[in-house]
TrEMBL record:
GO molecular function: purine nucleobase transmembrane transporter activity
Family: Belongs to the nucleobase:cation symporter-2 (NCS2) (TC 2.A.40) family. Azg-like subfamily.
Membrane topology: Multi-pass membrane protein
Keyword list, A-Z: Cell membrane, Membrane, Transmembrane, Transmembrane helix, Transport
This protein's name: Transport protein
Localization: Cell membrane
Amino acid sequence: MNAISKYFQLDELHTNVRTEVLAGFTTFISMSYILFVNPNVLGAAGMNKGAVFSASALAAAFGCLMMGIYAKYPIAVAPDLGINAFFAYSVVIGMGVKWQTAIAGVFVASIIFILITIFKLREMIINAIPSDLKYAISSGIGFFIAFLGLHQGGLIIANKSTVVGLGSFTSPMNWLTIVGLVATSILLILNVPGAIFVGMVISTVVGLVFGLIPMPHHLISAAPSLAPTFGVAVKHIGDINTLQLWVVVFTFLLVTFFDTAGTLVGLAQQAGFMKNNRMPRVGRALMSDSSAMLVGSVMGTSPIGAFVESSAGIAVGGRSGLTAVVTGIMFIVGMFFSPLLTVITDQVTAPALIIVGVMMAQNLKHIHWEHMEVAIPSFLVVLGMPLTYSISDGMALGFILYPITMIAAKKGKEVNWVMYLLFFVFIGFLWILEVK
């Protein structure tokens, strides 16, 4: 025990093993919904849900252990909710790309991710893209995820007259979504630890009691096989042979990069780690998440990122890497509860998607809305993602307009050359989608 305290510097951080274990468990409870949501999202792309379940758990465990042991931060990582939606609904379903090719794109993006981390190019990219657009990206993903949850939960449906409309309130399954959303909202407002997870449990119990969800035959079983997805990414690297697919790889890289970077900085500020506006050991933290992304792609899951739910563990006193280590161990334990997948329906996971969207939308407050040259492209990014049902299309709208509005405001010289390059990249991207 003394060795553990010494390695994780618990005394210096004014914490102890008991507090760190509690924090790690709290973080896991807060983010464990990803084990059930991710298979549902990627399952829509044709991937084997059981294999995705195991891949998600193992990739999250690896990332958490790396973050805890190597970077020594109480920050957990797992498959990112925003990027898995882009993977399934934009790339596979929207563009018609096979999931095998898409997962190969994640693998290639993770290699690039590691390389730019090693050569410290991430700082250059961060400085190139203005903060307003960074916040717009994460906020837009939040709106996209929430819209996705509302649709899957039956609360928003297609309507020929008005494009979209309100779902039926006579459907019992739709009411299951409403019950989950109300319960989760109340729990969050009351600051109940693991509110999202508890809300899912409430929805599941209600569904089982009223016969809306079939009762599982058992709760515990061996972890599902990884065979349907393991190594597929490596085998299909050669499929990435068009400009369109390289733009997809770039989008995986870009969105994962900024979502993770923003989350890391935000959590570091919450825990009091920031020194002179810099995050100590940030290189190790970034290497941990990029390595987890590589491992996850090989196993068969969408990109990995730092989870904002880590704030729950930090809130109860987690300050060292031991918190993340405990969370990682819990993900391994969670692999043996795969039978619960049968009771985690779209209506059960929909409230989680909506609430996470609310959390991500909070970044809107950081955008300088009083300056129209950044407000307009930021707005198009945020609004474009849910309305085009595509994260990449929403990004394209804002990134194309940004250099134009800045030039109009006579601030063209303030635009980094990388943004001018992205202007042409996204024009090409939209042209490819048009002629596809």
